[in-house]
Write a structure and sequence with these properties.
5-stranded mixed β-sheet, elongated, 1002 residues, mainly alpha
Length: 1002
């Protein structure tokens, strides 16, 4: 029949509006004799347009109508289709989503009636209903037909949204259970003698065992066989093996109706090389002696489904205790992580980006992360022992082992990815996890998920979004360093019973277990979510604290921080979810007094220890610091408030620097200790020096603004000296400086001098006011005439003094001069003034060299503290800082005018330049550099451990051990540390004797 052009055009437009792609072909199908009665029925077009692929649904409907046995059957289908919305939605939904099920309906045209029922029990069938649906199957072919008929009903509810993805997966697993039972029944009917000899249990594994099966998936099983009473065990196992093999063939072999799915028994002991069927005792012997970690992970999902269910339950009961001890195995967490990485590495490169299951951000990432958490924490929390991924994830969130927000995002992503996987497999009922590349297939999948505006683009966007979420959260959960340590605790300790905690602490070296126990009780008792998270964290933290020299202090400090921050929602979440935060905090809290003291004054700085956007432990640049401090000064009411804000920034940044130093020195389980000790020293020296400069700049701005407004009557600059100018400040160093000013045009010099002196006085006062922030001491003793000279001079006064009165020691001290704050042009001109003094043309005369040597010798004899061991004094002892620095500085004074590389305020840079210039051999330079770095590290360690500056090793054993840990020496190796220091210093002193005290011509 030929349609009129106008009508054709109208129908064509309607078809396009309802989502048909090939409207011309659809018109021809609607004109087919089978559909003539319904050609213009709007109900049919609306229903077709609601399917995933209207073209496919219409073609499938025509094929089904053509396949009906007679006109009466065809009319019954049409009448029911129009009058029954449930059938219409289900049937057309399936036809629009699956060519494989359309083929089945064409071969078995009466099976559409399986979709007519819409009773409540029909909505959520279980094993019993599926067994009834398979009951009439009496051979492999009829079993396949009955299986497809049941599958048809699952798919119909799925694509119509009557059931969600979790319910559909559970129904598929129940259908698989019923099918395995039916197949085993057929095998037993074919070999009644074998069936009479043995008890055979079929244990579902993998997704079938976990009640979360796909449409097309291998069904993983393990077989357990036992002899019936009076039978020979060997013969019984052989009989059970024959039955199991036949059952597998019934399901797996291809017939005229295709196959059902492969039955895979490779998860059994020894894999495909092991016997197909074992007795229960044989299984247990293998798992107790030979099993690998992944085999226990697989047993998480073990569930008896067919055969002798009593035997199956015995098997599960016997292996479950072994499963929950798997986390105690050596290298458990690394083994699981390694297996996951191996899976990803084995994906063909061309498929990685399309892998929905195995690729990064795929389903397996969620499953592995959840299973690892289950195995670690399920030892003591039985609520986690579920084989179903989503149920286990919900339990993990309820128990505080996973953040609620993370769990919700993972749940949403997993459901989306599983639904997408179902739709891909349903189309042809083929086992695949690859996202198709053809636009038509992507469009069908997108529409099936309710994405109708731009199905392809929306599908890809949603898929990538969920994959990104999974990848991010998988890395947080799966690779969380906390798990590795928790997994190595003895059973029972993850819940921290009082007695277990006491024993644990005594064993780990806690000196005061009674006090420590009180801290633990305060932290972990109760039923709140906070307490649950603490119970997760504390077993790990206890071990990390014990890895330090003072675990008691670590635990006490952790309690103080937790008391201060416990009510803030982000604190425990940070420690639980950010990979580095918990271990970093443990290191910082147990490494000594300085970092915890800084943290306690503002506990919110603990956020710096995480992996997130809080700045982390990387030191901030001087411009960044100055910008923050100057902004705080502008907002403040008065100089006192402004300097308080500046000192607060300084305290926070000192904590950041100290924490980074400790973590870099100790290392973490993911990141080993920094091998380059010099890099650690440079990082601390640079960070503390930049911070001091920024603090002085902010304080100067605050004082000037309060006393004089926008402009001081004199230009003013601060010159860093000593370690400050050399970018080598330690945690306890004073700020050595010179102050220089220059009156502005028209300003009386006396007025300018008074203003400059008032600025200095006020700066020193404000930076030393007692408060919760550490003071910053300003030391101007290196100025001309020392303590007897004026505190501030004009540039002209400096010039006159240096021209007439300058002594050798002052030229020596000026080697470290560098502008750090104030008027940049004035600072630059000061440096131009002093450069000829510190890098004299022609070098130093012999008398000047002798003078420097005399000064050095006198300093060694007079300034060394009484009773101190010179060989262990890091600053003034032989081979210490003073030895190395004076040796390098002598080369700078003598050769700086000719060697530009020597014109630096930094010791290590100058030493490297001297080496390049041939002024020192490579070997001698390395010896001096090693000694200087080690001595600096010792001073930093002493400050970190004791909370106050010191130049020699502590005498108190715990403090000495803590210095040792910072320097990389484990428990019991303090003697090795001291020997190594003496040896390094002795070698350096030998070089100093030759280069500094040796022949003048050098």
């Amino acid at each position: 029949m030929t349609a009129a052009p106008g009508r054709r055009s109208s129908t064509f437009t309607r078809l396009l509006r309802h989502g048909f792609i090939d409207a011309s072909a659809a018109e021809r199908l609607l004109d087919s004799p089978e559909l003539v009665p319904l050609r213009d029925d709007p109900v049919l077009l609306e229903a077709l347009g609601a399917t995933a692929d209207p073209d496919l649904a219409l073609l499938g409907l025509v094929r089904l109508l053509e396949a009906q046995r007679d006109h009466g059957a065809r009319q019954e289908l049409l009448d029911t289709l129009i009058s029954s919305k449930p059938l219409r939605d289900r049937l057309l939904g399936v036809l629009g989503a699956s060519t494989a099920l359309a083929d089945h309906l064409t071969r078995h045209p009466d099976d559409w009636q399986a979709l007519v029922m819409y009773e409540s029990y029909d909505l959520h069938p279980g094993v019993e209903e599926f067994e009834a649906g398979l009951a009439e199957a009496d051979d492999p072919v009829s079993l396949r037909v009955a299986y497809r008929r049941c599958l048809l009903s699952i798919a119909a509810r799925d694509v119509c949204g009557t059931t969600g993805v979790a319910e559909s997966a559970a129904e598929l697993a129940d259908l698989a259970t019923a099918t395995l039972r039916a197949a085993l029944g057929l095998a037993e009917a074919a070999a009644p003698e074998d069936a009479g000899l043995c008890r055979l249990a079929v244990i579902a594994m993998g997704k079938c065992g976990g009640h979360e099966l796909n449409y097309v998936s291998d069904v993983d099983v393990i077989f357990v066989g036992e002899a019936v009473e009076g039978a020979d065990e060997t013969k019984a196992v052989r009989a059970a093996t024959r039955l199991a093999s036949h059952m597998m063939r019934i399901c797996s072999e291809t017939t005229v109706e295709g196959s059902i799915w492969p039955v895979d028994a490779n998860l059994r002991p020894e894999g495909r090389n092991g016997p197909l069927v074992r007795t229960l005792s044989s299984h247990l012997a293998y798992y107790q002696r030979w099993a690998k970690t992944w085999e226990f992970q697989a047993l998480l999902k073990a569930r008896p489904v067919a055969g002798d269910l009593e035997l199956g339950e015995e098997y599960v009961s016997a292996v479950q205790p072994l499963v929950w001890k798997a986390a105690e195995r050596e290298n458990f967490v690394p083994d699981v992580q390694k297996m996951r990485r191996r899976v990803v590495e084995n994906i063909p490169v061309a498929e990685v980006d399309r892998q929905l299951k195995l690729g990064p951000g795929g389903l397996r990432d969620v499953e592995f992360a959840v299973q690892l958490l289950q195995l670690v924490h399920g030892r003591t929390d039985t609520s986690l022992r579920s084989g179903t991924t989503l149920d286990a994830l919900e339990a993990l969130a309820a128990g505080g082992y996973v953040g609620r927000a993370d769990a919700a995002q993972l749940d949403e992503a997993y459901r989306f990815l599983r639904t997408m996987e179902h739709r891909i497999q349903l189309f042809r009922l083929r086992r695949t996890h690859l996202v198709p590349e053809e636009e038509a297939e992507l469009r069908r999948i997108g529409r099936s998920l309710g994405l109708r505006q731009d199905p392809v683009a929306e599908l890809i966007r949603e898929w990538k979004r969920h994959a990104t979420v999974v990848r991010r959260l998988h890395e947080k959960l799966f690779y969380r360093p906390l798990l590795d340590a928790v997994a190595q605790l003895a059973t029972g300790e993850a819940r921290l019973s009082a007695e277990a905690a006491r024993e644990r602490m005594v064993a780990l070296g806690y000196a005061d277990p009674a006090s420590a126990l009180r801290h633990l009780e305060a932290l972990a008792s109760g039923v709140t979510r906070k307490a649950a998270i603490q119970r997760t964290l504390l077993p790990v933290l206890l071990g990390w604290f014990a890895d330090s020299a003072d675990p008691d202090a670590g635990l006490l400090n952790f309690r103080k921080v937790s008391d201060a921050l416990g009510k803030t929602p982000w604190y425990l979440r940070l420690l639980r979810d950010e990979g580095a935060a918990a271990q970093n905090l443990a290191r910082v809290l147990s490494a000594g007094r300085l970092a915890p003291d800084l943290l306690m004054r503002a506990p919110e700085a603990v956020a710096l220890l995480g992996d997130g956007d809080g700045g982390g432990l990387e030191p901030r640049s001087r411009p960044h610091l100055e910008q923050e401090i100057l902004a705080a000064v502008r907002r403040a009411d008065g100089a006192a408030q402004a300097v308080t804000a500046a000192r607060g920034v300084r305290r926070r940044e000192l904590f950041r620097t100290a924490a980074a130093d400790i973590v870099g020195s100790y290392g973490t389980e993911e990141q080993p200790a920094e091998a380059d000790q010099g890099a650690l020293v440079d990082r601390v020296g640079g960070a503390v020096s930049d911070l001091t400069a920024a603090t002085l700049a902010g304080t100067l701005r605050a004082v000037v603004r309060e006393g004089w407004g926008d402009s001081l009557p004199t230009r003013f600059a601060i010159i860093g000296m000593g370690r400050f100018g050399g970018h080598e400040l330690g945690y306890g160093s004073d700020a050595d400086v010179l102050f220089v000013h220059e009156p502005r045009d028209g300003v009386d010099e006396r007025e300018a001098s008074q203003a400059a002196n008032k600025v200095v006085s006020e700066m020193r006062r404000l930076l030393q006011i007692p408060s919760s922030d550490p003071p910053l001491l300003i030391d101007a003793d290196l100025r001309p005439e020392g303590k007897s000279g004026p505190l501030v001079r004009t540039l002209t006064s400096y010039e006159a003094y240096y021209r007439r009165w300058s002594l050798t020691w002052e030229s020596h001290a000026l080697l470290r001069a560098e502008p750090v704050a104030g008027d940049e042009d004035l600072g630059r001109r000061f440096i131009e003034l002093v450069d000829p003094l510190r890098y004299p043309a022609g070098g130093l005369g012999d008398e000047a060299v002798r003078e420097i040597r005399r000064l050095k010798a006198r300093m060694e004899s007079e300034r060394l503290p009484r009773g101190a061991d010179p060989k262990l004094h890091a600053k003034l002892g032989p081979g210490g800082l003073s030895d190395v620095e004076w040796t390098v500085q002598l080369m700078q004074l003598r050769h700086g005018a000719d060697e530009p590389g020597l014109r630096t305020t930094r010791t290590r840079e100058a030493l490297a330049a001297a080496r390049t210039a041939g002024l020192i051999t490579d070997e001698d330079a390395e010896i001096l550099d090693e000694a200087w770095v080690l001595a600096t590290r010792v001073r930093n360690a002493v400050m970190l451990v004791r909370g106050r500056a010191g130049d020699t090793f502590p005498s108190e054993p715990r403090e000495l051990a803590a210095v040792g840990r910072y320097l990389g020496y484990g428990p019991g190796h303090v003697g090795d540390m001291l020997d190594a220091y003496r040896r390094t210093a002795r070698r350096a002193r030998g070089v100093v004797e030759e280069l500094f005290y040796g022949a003048a011509e050098r």
